Amino acid sequence: MDPLSADPVGVTGSANFSEASIKDNDENMMIIRGNLRVADIYLTEFMRLFNHYYFRTVLENLRLAGEAPSDDSLFLSPDDSWQLKYAPGSFKRKRLDLFKTMSGALPGQSITGGKLILRKTRQQKYR
Question: DSSP for 69-86?
Answer without folding.
Answer: --HHHHS--SSGGGGGGG
